[in-house]
Amino acid sequence: MTDIVTGRLQAAFADAGVTGWLHAVDIDSGAQVETGADQPVCTASVHKVCVLVTLHELAAAGVLDLTEQVECPPAGRTSGPTGLAAMLDPVRLSLRDAAFLMMSVSDNTAADLLLRRVGLDAVNRTTDRLGLTRTRAVYGFGEMLGTMREDAGPAGARALTDPHVITRLRALDPARTNRSTPRDMTRLLTALWRDEACPPEYGAAARRVMGLQVWPHRLASGFPFDDVHVAGKTGSLPTLRNEIGVVEYPDGGRYAVAVFTRTAHTAAVLPAADAVIGTAARIAVDALRAP
Which residues form the Beta-lactamase class A catalytic domain (predicted)? Predict the structure, then answer.
C-alpha cells in the first residue's frame, strides 16, 4: 500500500513538472505517508509558522503581551505585495494583529516586525525545544530578500528569469538559508495542534490565525468541501512553491501535511505547480483515512 501511494505522489509531481517532497501524519494515530520526508528544503514564508509559534510561546511565558502595540512607519518596510508591505501610511497595530497579517496574506513587513520583537535566536530555541533538529532560521525575511537582490546582480528582478542566476541564489540553497524538512514541519504542526507547543489558550490563538490564510490555490484546493477545514501557510520563491497545514474532517480526523516543490521553470505563474500541492496532500490524506 505504501509503495502504491508513494508512486501516485511521485507521478502527480512529475505530471505537474515539479520535484516534490511530502510528509503527512495522522495527528492522533501517528500513521504516516511520505516521499522524501527528510529532504532539506528552503522554507521561504513557511518559516513564518515558526515565528507564530515562538510569539505565542513567549506570550504564554509572560515575556510579551499579544496586545502590545508596535509602530510601523512607511520607511524601511520589508518589500512585498500584501499587507503592511504594500501600504503607504504610518500604521500602529498589536503584535497579534501583525501575526494575523503575517499568516493570512504572508505580509513580510508584519513578519519582520514580529522578528524584531522576539528575535531570530528565540525562533531557533523554539524549534530546538520541539525537536526540529533539521530546522533553522538564518535570516529575517527582509534579509533573505536582500540576499536575492545581491545575488541577482545589477539586472535586478529581471535576472530571476535566468536559470543561471537562479543557481547562485543563496535563498534557494537549504545549506545557506532558512530551512527545514517536510517531517520537521509536520512535527511542528502536530505539536501545535496537540497543545504541546504552547498552552491550550495560546495554541488555540495560533491555530485560529493559521485558519485565516486567504490563498485557496495550493493545499486547500485538494479539499473542496464545506465541512473540511484547512489551516495552512504557503511559501514561495523563484522556482519554489510550498505549503504546510492541517486538514480537519468533521469526524474528528486531523492530518498534518507538508509539501515542498521545486521546478526548473522560472515563470512566476505555474498553475499546475500550485495545484499539485493540493493533489498530493489529498492523495496522502486519503491514504491515511483509508480503512
Answer: 22-261
